[in-house]
C-alpha cells in the first residue's frame, strides 16, 4: 500500500483547486448564508480534542433553530441527549469546530469553521425556549470561514431521492443492535418501546 505523507505528494495526486473554490470562502454570513440557516433543521458538528480525539455529532430541530447572532456568530441550542458530551469536552481543550448545515431536498450545504464556546447565559438561553423548556446550554461559534459546498456528494449518493431509501424493516431496529452490542437483559422489543417513550418525554 502506498501512503501519502506530505502535502507535496498529495498535490501530485490532486489538481489545484478551481479559483472559484478558493474565492467563495467568506469570513462572515452574507444574506444567502443567513437565508440558508433560516431553513436549516440539521447540522453536523466536527470537533477534535487537544489530544487528537475526534468526534462528529448531529444536532437537529425545527428549521431556523440555529440563530445568527450577528454576521460572524451563530448559536446552536443543546437539547437533552445521551450526556456523553463528546463534542463539548473536545471544545473545552480545543475550541476549533467545523459545521456542515443541511436543508432537506437541497444538494448544496453550508459550511462554517470557527471557534466554539459553551454558554449558559440566561438571556441567550431564553432565545431558544420551546414550550416552556430551555436548552441545557448553547454552543456559540465565532465564524472564521463560511462557504457553500457544491452538490457532487449529494448527487452521487442520491441522498434526497426517495428511490434510494431503504425499507427500514430490512435493517435491525436500534433496540436489536443495542441488545447485541451491550447484552442488555431487556428484549429488543422492550428496548425499542422504552426508547420511544424517552423520545416522547425528553425530546426537549
From TrEMBL:
It holds the Pfam family PNPOx_N. Residues 29-150 form the Pyridoxamine 5'-phosphate oxidase N-terminal domain. Gene3D superfamilies: Electron Transport, Fmn-binding Protein, Chain A. It comes from Aurantimonas aggregata. PANTHER family: FAD-BINDING, PUTATIVE (AFU_ORTHOLOGUE AFUA_6G07600)-RELATED. This is Pyridoxamine 5'-phosphate oxidase family protein.
Amino acid at each position: 500500500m502506498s501512503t501519502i505523507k506530505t502535502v507535496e505528494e498529495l498535490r501530485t495526486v490532486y489538481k489545484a483547486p478551481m479559483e472559484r473554490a478558493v474565492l467563495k470562502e467568506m469570513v462572515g454570513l452574507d444574506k444567502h448564508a443567513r437565508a440558508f440557516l433560516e431553513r436549516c433543521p440539521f447540522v453536523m458538528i466536527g470537533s477534535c480534542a487537544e489530544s487528537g480525539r475526534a468526534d462528529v455529532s448531529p444536532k437537529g430541530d425545527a428549521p431556523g433553530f440555529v440563530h445568527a447572532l450577528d454576521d460572524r456568530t451563530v448559536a446552536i441550542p443543546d437539547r437533552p441527549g445521551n450526556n456523553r458530551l463528546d463534542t463539548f469536552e473536545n471544545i473545552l481543550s480545543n475550541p476549533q469546530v467545523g459545521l456542515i448545515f443541511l436543508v432537506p431536498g437541497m444538494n448544496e450545504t453550508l459550511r462554517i469553521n470557527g471557534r466554539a464556546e459553551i454558554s449558559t447565559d440566561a438571556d441567550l438561553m431564553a432565545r431558544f425556549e420551546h414550550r416552556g423548556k430551555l436548552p441545557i446550554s448553547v454552543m456559540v461559534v465565532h465564524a472564521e470561514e463560511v462557504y457553500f459546498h457544491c452538490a457532487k456528494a449529494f448527487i452521487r449518493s442520491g441522498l434526497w431521492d426517495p428511490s434510494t431509501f431503504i425499507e427500514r424493516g430490512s435493517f435491525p431496529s436500534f433496540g436489536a443492535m443495542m441488545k447485541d452490542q451491550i447484552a442488555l437483559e431487556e428484549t429488543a422489543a422492550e428496548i425499542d418501546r422504552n426508547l420511544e417513550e424517552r423520545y416522547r418525554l425528553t425530546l426537549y
